[in-house]
């Protein structure tokens, strides 16, 4: 039922390595891009928090609060609490990069207000995906240890599938939020001229991290299906 290894080497690890390399490259790119443009002060002189407040007001959103959160690029919008949380370098930062990231998170708040379907789907999937990401591997490992019990292994794979599905659904949500951010920053006059192009570079690099994460998860899922997909390989 399970494939042989070649001299104790599992060839399917190549898929894991490819996924890990993609994730590392994407992470390095977004960090280097943000650092580069975090040194470019915006002409407006606004902080990320101030820009976020202006964007939300412009969109007619008055029930979303803006909070500071510790960490580097830990920015996110919490739709359940209706809170926009901005990290150290974004909340008080006056750079073009800081404003771009803040605007991106505002894009999620606007999606929430407009009942953007992919966001609603992602929110609906999240509880199962979160549960699956925590329990999938323990089930698979226990299934293998207990004489490779198929039921536990397949249950783990199914749960892992929902975690992968969540990452796939996340892609249009993130791309749309960035698109909204660039448009708002351009039309509102918060950023001027080439500053908008810089924002596109920052948000484009950030988007690649989601693409790489989804690709890595898909490769891992393919590996699991290959290893435990029910083929007979004696």
UniProtKB/TrEMBL annotation:
Q: Which InterPro entries match?
A: Zn_peptidase_2
- Keyword Phosphoprotein on entry: no
An example of a Pfam family matching this protein is Zn_peptidase_2
**Membrane-spanning intervals of the chain:** 12-34, 124-146, 152-173, 207-228
Does the record carry Transmembrane as a key word? yes
Query: Could you tell me the keywords of this UniProt record?
Result: Membrane, Transmembrane, Transmembrane helix
What is the protein's name according to its record? Peptidase
């Amino acid at each position: 039922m399970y494939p042989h290894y070649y001299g104790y080497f599992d060839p399917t690890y190549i898929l894991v390595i490819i996924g890990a390399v993609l994730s590392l490259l994407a992470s390095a790119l977004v960090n280097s891009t943000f650092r580069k443009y975090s040194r470019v002060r915006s002409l407006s002189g606004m902080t990320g928090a101030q820009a976020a407040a202006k964007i939300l007001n412009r969109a007619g959103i008055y029930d979303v609060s803006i909070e500071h959160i510790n960490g580097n690029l830990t920015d996110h919008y919490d739709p359940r609490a209706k809170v926009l949380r901005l990290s150290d370098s974004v909340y008080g930062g006056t750079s073009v990069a800081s404003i771009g990231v803040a605007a991106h998170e505002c894009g999620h708040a606007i999606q929430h207000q407009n009942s953007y379907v992919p966001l609603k789907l992602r929110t609906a999937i999240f509880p199962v995906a979160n549960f699956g990401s925590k329990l999938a591997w323990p089930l698979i490992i226990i299934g293998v240890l207990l004489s490779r019990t198929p039921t536990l292994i397949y249950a783990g794979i199914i749960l892992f599938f929902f975690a992968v599905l969540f990452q796939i659904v996340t892609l249009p949500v993130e791309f749309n939020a960035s698109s909204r951010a660039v448009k708002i920053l351009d039309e509102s006059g918060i950023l001027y001229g080439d500053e908008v192009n810089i924002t596109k570079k920052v948000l484009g690099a950030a988007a690649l991290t989601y693409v790489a994460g989804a690709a890595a998860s898909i490769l891992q899922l393919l590996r699991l299906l290959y290893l435990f997909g029910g083929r007979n390989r004696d």
